[in-house]
């Protein structure tokens, strides 16, 4: 495999737990468990802190999904040479619960911070805010994971370029396939 493509695969493999953490609030939105807004409906300067759509349920299931996927990555790392070679992290040297928690919480925290700012600048929930919609979770995940593992700078630069591009391409595909109402 071409070295750049392999590097890209390694970078995206690193993101798998964060991607599922980010998707979990949508996947589990109909589960009536911890369905309370993180801000408990409080306002800041007359506007919601985060909005009613940011719930403890989303955080719970997001973190749980990240932990489960880090656990799966650890199992694959320990059993298969191919997964060891694609892993940027030595999963045998990391506590998978802590790593999963940090990734899941970081991704969701990044989204929460972006929501706070969006409310301040009058952008409604669900409305596009490029490039922050593409980078919020990445920034949060990378910040929190850096407390236990420092990624090479090349990985960080690649992710800051590739994630927004990939996000836009996926959204455009969804729009043209009739699966999404907005292009971004």
Commentary on this structure:
With 184 residues, the protein is mostly helical. It has one domain. Helix content is 64%, strand content 2%. It has helices at residues 3-27, 56-79, 81-86, 96-120, 132-145, 153-176; strands at residues 43-44, 47-48. Strands 1-2 form a two-stranded antiparallel ribbon. The two termini are 32 Å apart. The relative contact order is 0.14. The mean pLDDT is 92.
Structural class: mainly alpha
Order of helices and strands: HEEHHHHH
Q: Assembly type of the shown chains?
A: single chain
Order of neighbouring strands in the sheet with most strands: 1-2
The whole-number mean of residue pLDDT values reads 92
Overall 3D geometry? globular
Q: Count every beta strand, where a strand is a DSSP E run of 2 or more residues.
A: 2
* Count of separate structural domains: 1
Residue share in helix: 55-70%
Query: What is the CA-based Rg, rounded?
Result: 17 Å
Strand content: under 5%
Distance between the termini: 32 Å
What is the makeup of the main sheet?
Answer: 2 strands, antiparallel
* Low-pLDDT segments, ≥5 res: none
